[in-house]
Amino acid sequence: MARLQLHDLQLARGGQTVLEHLDGRFMDGAITALIGANGAGKSTLISAIMGMLEPVAGRVECAVPRERRAWLPQQLALDLTFPMSVEELIMTGTWPSHGALKGYCGPHYRRGREIMAKLGISHLAHRPLGALSGGQRQRALFGRTLMQEAELLLLDEPFANVDIETVEVLMEVLRDMARQGTTIIVVLHDMEQLARLADDVLLLAGGHGRWVRPDALLDHHSGLAPRAPRLPLTFPDVSHAGTA
Ligand SMILES: Nc1ncnc2c1ncn2[C@@H]1O[C@H](COP(=O)(O)OP(=O)(O)OP(=O)(O)O)[C@@H](O)[C@H]1O
Question: Where does the record place the ABC transporter domain (predicted)?
Fold first, then answer.
């Protein structure tokens, strides 16, 4: 039911506590929006979930094997200038489970072609990453995640610098992955995207985390800005909302 759980987690950066007493479970097959102001600790929590940051106290319980955990950072954080084609990038999705040095076999290539077709990038298979638009690059990065057969997927603002048509394709891919049981955590700042995608919301503020129903956030925003759903998220007082 919940392969990823947080137990009284305390995380620090540079000797300073960033988050404490963080509890909760991320349901299998659900999409959780991770929200909070700049510096609230979203990246810190993601690092801990990916096993890259040791908790000061408490623990992350994750039953998903490491090779099935995928992390898609913000596009700007990625160096995509190295000479690699779209197809080559997608095939690297096999590395965590298959190894980087073994080469690929027929079924790998077939699956890679299916994934490119699903993402509408078959015609870009041999194009270098450096020659792609933001949207095309993001489709290719999602392709690598599909190739990896991720069971836990963390994404940081996956729709930033991406065209509207690509947003639609990628949202459908995420929904599809969730339907197949993948646990998805996505950092979002856009209310409309949250409304469309999130089954659950974890709000980080003041060093704590609170689980909020998406509709509670939507009610808050509809009162503030009924005609402007694309406003960036603001953070309501959710002190009435129970922690998980
Ligand atoms: N390597 C580091 N060393 C020291 N402090 C750090 C380090 N990384 C992050 N911090 C601090 O930890 C706090 C949480 O940062 P974090 O990057 O997790 O926030 P965030 O919610 O992801 O912010 P943003 O939305 O700006 O990416 C901030 O106060 C930040 O300055």
Answer: 4-231
The pLDDT of 6-17, averaged and rounded, is 96
| Tokens matching residue 48 | 């801990």
Burial of 6 (C-beta count, 10 Å sphere; 0-12/13-18/19+): buried
CATH number assigned to the domain covering 1-64+151-244:
3.40.50.300
Query: pLDDT digit string (tens) for 166-193?
Result: 999 999 999 999 999 999 999 999 888 9
Model pTM score: 0.87
Residue 135 tokens, joined: 């949207």
List pLDDT tens digits, range 43-74: 999 999 999 999 999 999 999 998 889 998 88
What is the C-alpha to C-alpha distance for residues 109 and 91, in angstroms, rounded to an integer?
8
Q: How far apart are alpha carbons 190 and 230 in whole angstroms?
A: 6
Give the start-to-end residue ranges of the domains of the chain.
Answer: 1-64+151-244, 80-150
Pocket test for ligand 1, best of 13, 49, 53, 233 (most atoms within 8 A of CB): 13
Q: For residue 46, which atom of ligand 1 is closest to its CA?
A: 18
